[in-house]
Every structure is written in C-alpha cells, then in structure tokens.
Amino acid sequence: MKLDPFYLIVDSAAWIGRLVPLGVRLVQLRIKEMDEAGLRSEIRAAKAICADNGCQLIVNDHWRLAIEEECDFIHLGQEDLAAADLMAIRRAGLKLGLSTHDHAELDTALAAEPDYVALGPVYPTILKKMKWAPQGLERIGEWKRRVAPLPLVAIGGLNPDRLDGVFSAGADCAAVVTDITLNQNPEARAREWLRRTEPWR
Ligand SMILES: Cc1ncc(COP(=O)(O)OP(=O)(O)O)c(N)n1
Ligand SMILES: Cc1nc(C(=O)O)sc1CCOP(=O)(O)O
Ligand SMILES: [Mg+2]
Question: Ligand 2 pocket: which of 9, 78, 117, 131 to mutate (most atoms <8 Å of CB)?
C-alpha cells in the first residue's frame, strides 16, 4: 500500500472542510475529548468531505465508531491496540496504522500486521507531553529496515524544512499537526506542505 507523503492530522471536521479541498489526500481525525454523539457527527461530516475530495480519512482511537460509521482506516496507539478488538477491526475490513516509540512497541506493532507503522516523536512536539526523547533521523532508517515493505510514517515536530531529512532517512510519509493548525495562515502552510512533498508523491 502507498500512502500520500503528506499526512495531515486535525481535531475537527471543520478543519477537514477547510484544508482537504486544497488537495490534501491523507487526513486523520484526532479528537481526544468528545461525547459519542459528537464524535459520530464529526466522523460522518469528515467522511463526507473526504469522499467528495478524494482524500483518505483515518480515524484516530475510536475504532468502534469507525466501524459503525463504515470508515475504512483507523490509527491506534499501543494502549489503544491493547484495548481494541483486532478481530472485529479486521472483520470490518478496516486498514490499521499503529504508533511506535521504541523497540518493544515496534515488535508489538509488527505482530499485529498493520498497514503502516508510525514512529515518533522524530523532533520535539508541542502538541502533547511525551515520555520519549526525540527519536532523530537515524532511528527512521532503522525503523524502515524493520518495517518495509510497509509504509513508515514519521511524526512529531515536523515542518517543511525537515521534510528532506525525514524522507531521505527512509520515511514514506510525514504527519503534522501544529505546524499547520497553529500557523498564521493554515491554508498557505498546507499548500506549502503539498508543494514540498510533491517530489515523494
Ligand atoms: C500518524 C500518527 N502517529 C502517531 C499517533 C499517536 O497515536 P497515540 O500514541 O495513540 O496517541 P494519540 O494521538 O491518540 O494521542 C497518531 N495519532 N497518528
Ligand atoms: C499525536 C502525536 N503522536 C506522536 C507520537 O510520537 O506518537 S507525536 C504527535 C504530535 C504531532 O504533532 P506536531 O506535528 O504538532 O508535533
Ligand atoms: Mg491513540
């Protein structure tokens, strides 16, 4: 499976409506605090926008709702994975991306036969507190050797000037939150990401 090299992560369908029509082809809906009715409505709206724009939607964490709403791709972290019903996810035909932060997590992830593996935080991130030190670029090469032929997603502290480094080190895809959502002009920044990832598309 090939992933688009630019993987946008946002926390609402409104963000998806704002940025996906610019040409984004891979987006994650990552909502951490919301009741089930709200989540369901966000997933439905995100799914409709992505379908209209030829964009792959990946739902973070909420695998049960993703199944019920007939989504086709989820992302889970290690704790999410431990609590999830992998058989139900597979039975529903969902593709699965998994987070990894160290060797033990990589072993666990590969045993689950995911559709991609994410490694982070490559650089320091301001989005959330993390117990892992920044992984650095060398780790990307090591992970790629273990993960191939699956796609490797790099995440954490990425910006357009760091893209050459992560792709040259072996990442297939670069995921981003705050470099775009906290930018003064998120649309212009998303366009810059689209342009700067073009060589790897
Ligand atoms: C592409 C991608 N990589 C890593 C994560 C982090 O997942 P997780 O460790 O479960 O943490 P939360 O995002 O759920 O807080 C991700 N969401 N996407
Ligand atoms: C959600 C997330 N997961 C990470 C991991 O390492 O698993 S790093 C991260 C935050 C990414 O945000 P930004 O692009 O703003 O640094
Ligand atoms: Mg999670």
Answer: 9
Residue 158: CB within 6 Å of ligand 2? yes
CB atoms within 5 A of ion ligand 3 belong to 61, 77, 80
Domain extents in the chain: 6-200
- For the chain, strand residue ranges (E) read 6-10, 26-29, 56-60, 73-76, 95-100, 116-119, 152-155, 173-176
Whether the predicted model's global pTM rises above the 0.90 cut: yes
Predicted confidence (pLDDT) per residue in 123-139, tens digit: 999 999 999 999 999 99
- One of 3.40.50.720, 3.30.450.200, 3.20.20.70, 3.40.50.300 is the CATH number of 6-200, namely 3.20.20.70
